[in-house]
Design goal:
Blueprint: H1 2-20, H2 23-52, H3 62-111, H4 114-119, H5 122-164, H6 166-213, H7 215-220, H8 224-276, H9 282-323, E1 345-352, E2 361-368, E3 373-377, H10 384-391, E4 399-404, E5 407-408, H11 414-419, E6 421-424, E7 433-434, H12 435-439, H13 448-457, H14 461-465, E8 474-475, H15 484-498, E9 502-506, H16 514-528, E10 532-536, E11 548-553, E12 556-561, H17 563-569, H18 572-581
Parallel strand pairs: 3-10, 3-11, 6-9, 9-10
Antiparallel strand pairs: 1-2, 1-4, 4-5, 7-8, 11-12
């Protein structure tokens, strides 16, 4: 319970910090809420005074009555204008705050370590940034719209009722705690339930996102029934927690209306006695009954707002948890900017593991001279891709160090390090836009001639020309509509255009036909001349020309040498080679 309250307070402080940036709009909204509420409370007085002028048949003062009604009409128009401006202010506050939160969340996404992204589904992250923030926005807007007005209405109503008749006011005040107790009970129950509902929605979004992206795999392995069963289980949990949350939140309206009825009945009974005893006029009783309605209405609205705010804060807590996640290790002050890259890479006693209790790479040593081609081979899970992640500093080593041109990569800027590498991975990445926009990603100022030359070198020019608008053809996110081979050729052309000083090729030709692969290999051979290159390959035929072949197993380099030397050793590499070409 203490942890729950601490979490709520922490979330409230963060919300107020965001809202505080727009304090001028908050102050204006409060002033307008006060004006709107007080003028609304002034109307029953005018109506009551008008009623008291209806004394009997032939004794009605129409002139004064119309004057009161005219004044009431003016007041109502002013109230309408104040409420309209107040709603504009509240909308601005709400959407400015949501904009800032989403901006901070997206900025945090850019600096989160890959470890976090690898351990959380993309759908769950999307749910936090989109759905949770949207839910928070709705709750915050409702809170600003009704909370300020409700509080001012309650205080103003009490003041006017005390002025009219303190005794009847005491009856109203005595019944009020019932409504407050109900609101407090509902608020405590609904927060945890709405938080669970929000978390389960995120889990469901993650499953849907995963299935949409991998539907072909699901169907290929006949996993439709298993996926449906998994989705049904999450969907059922969402149903249960949603029903619980909605049940308690739905208690709000009937419960507060019951209290409203008690207040109205109490005012009517005591007011009628006061009229009979001559302590109150009929017009004043009418005014009092109107105040009783206006006094209880905000409790009804505030109770509803509290329920919505509980949902909003539950969603806000999830998005703030994301924003508060530990970012990747910040760059050192005055970090070295890697320029004029020579291409020497040294790994000294490098150790790394994704999980503390599962060792992967231990005491790895490697010295690569500028311009050398280093091939990395080994069975699945031996650490080949992990080594690439460490070279690019997607992950930091847990022991030892990696030097580029004699400088520890942790002492240099990530931007300059990653700019020095060109990567072609087995998994292609293309964004929504034209083919040209995808090609110039690493070299935005490339000329048309350079773009075409790079595409020709990657053997992508011919299929690009056959597309409806050539290089200006729009492609969807992930290159949907292109074959896997075409997508990989575009990624290869992108690297050939930027020509960085060092290269990383991770199964770069895995999705290309044999004939095109031979041509690409020739293009790669030219591109790698004078450039330090790391080549991860399963097909050993593609790495025969490498200067150094590293044979990895269980995170360690067990053999090292060129193709002929390793075959002569008749060790693990020899067995791998024989298994492919026997």
């Amino acid at each position: 319970m203490a942890k729950h309250k601490s979490k709520e307070k922490s979330t409230m402080k963060k919300v107020l910090r965001y809202v505080g940036k727009y304090w001028y709009l908050v102050v204006l909204s409060i002033i307008l809420a006060a004006v709107s509420a007080l003028l609304t409370l002034y109307v029953p007085i005018l109506i009551g005074d008008a009623i008291d002028l209806i004394i009997g048949q032939g004794k009605v003062d129409f002139t004064s009555i119309f004057a009161y009604l005219r004044e009431a009409a003016i007041v109502v128009l002013v109230v309408a204008a104040a409420q309209w401006i107040m709603n504009v202010c509240n909308n601005k506050i709400s959407y400015y705050v949501v904009r800032d939160i989403r901006k901070d969340a997206f900025e945090k996404l850019q600096i989160l370590p890959l470890k976090y992204l690898d351990s959380h589904s993309s759908g769950e992250i999307v749910s936090r940034i989109i759905a949770d923030v949207e839910q928070f926005s709705e709750g915050l807007l409702m809170g600003f719209t009704q909370f300020f007005t409700g509080v001012v209405t309650i205080l103003g109503t009490l003041f006017f009722m005390v002025m009219l008749n303190p005794k009847i006011t005491i009856v109203v005040v005595c019944i009020t705690p019932v409504s407050l107790l109900l609101a407090s009970f509902i608020a405590k129950k609904t927060y945890s339930m709405f938080r669970l509902q929000s978390e389960t929605k995120g889990e469901q979004t993650g499953i849907i996102d995963e299935m949409i992206g991998n539907q072909k795999v699901v169907q290929a392995f006949l996993q439709e029934d298993n996926v449906l069963e998994r989705f049904d289980e999450v969907n059922e949990r969402l149903r249960k927690c949603s029903l619980r949350a909605i049940f308690f939140s739905s208690i709000t309206n009937p419960a507060t209306r019951f209290v409203n009825g008690l207040v109205y009945a109490g005012v009517g009974f005591t007011g009628a006695i006061a009229v009979v005893n001559g302590n109150l006029s009929v017009g004043q009783l009418s005014c009092f009954l109107s105040y009783a309605n206006q006094y209880t209405k905000p409790f009804n609205e505030i109770s509803g707002v509290i329920t919505e705010l509980q949902n909003a804060f539950a969603c806000a807590a999830r998005i703030f948890d994301f924003i508060d996640e530990t970012p990747q290790t910040p760059e050192k002050e005055g970090a070295y900017v890697l320029e004029q890259v020579q291409g020497s890479v040294d790994l000294q006693e490098v150790s790394f593991s994704y999980e503390e209790n599962q060792k992967l790479i231990e005491h790895l040593n490697l010295q690569v001279k500028p311009g050398q081609r280093v091939a990395i081979v080994g069975p699945t899970g031996c650490g080949k891709t992990t080594m690439i992640n460490l070279l690019m500093r997607f992950y930091d080593v847990t022991g030892g160090k990696i030097l580029v041109d004699g400088t520890d990569i942790r002492d240099m800027t990530r931007n300059s390090l990653r700019t020095s590498y060109g990567m072609v991975l087995q998994e292609t990445w293309l964004r929504e836009g034209t083919i040209k926009e995808n090609l110039i990603m690493g070299k935005p100022d490339a000329t048309e001639e350079e773009i075409v030359a790079a595409a020709k070198a990657a053997h992508a020019h011919s299929f690009i020309q056959r597309m409806p608008k050539g290089y200006d053809t729009e492609i969807k996110e992930g290159g949907e509509g292109l074959s896997q081979g075409q997508k990989q050729l575009l990624c290869i052309a992108r690297i050939m255009l930027s020509l960085p000083p060092m290269l990383i090729l991770d199964e770069a030709t895995s999705s290309i036909d044999t004939r095109t692969e031979l041509m690409i290999q020739n293009a790669f051979a030219k591109m790698m001349e004078g450039r330090t290159s790391f080549i991860v390959a399963h097909r050993l035929s593609t790495i025969k020309e490498a200067d150094i072949i590293l044979v990895m197993k269980d995170g360690k380099i067990i053999e090292q040498g060129n193709h002929e030397e390793l075959l002569g050793q008749r060790g693990f590499y020899y067995e791998l080679y024989q298994s492919q070409f026997r």
